[in-house]
Amino acid sequence: MKIMAICGSGLGSSFMVEMNIKKVLKKLNIEAEVEHSDLSSATPDAADVFVMAKDIAASARLPDSQLVVINNIIDINELENKLSAYFAGRQS
Description:
Blueprint: E1 2-7, H1 12-28, E2 33-38, E3 49-53, H2 54-57, E4 67-70, H3 76-91
Parallel strand pairs: 1-2, 1-3, 3-4
């Protein structure tokens, strides 16, 4: 499983989200490779799931099934809820 945190330029905010994803995965006991990148590098084959803010999700050319869209990139509770829901949906 590969997860990619995406922001417009692929620098600070996506790196911060990557670190938070790693914290959430550890708490959920889920193993995955996590990276960060810019929006233009987000192609469907680059990762299994992409985490990005709502403001850039509309610009992403990715299937909805690969997207985890967050409203607030610094809210780790929202990130945990969205990732938990994503993984629960994959198991059903």
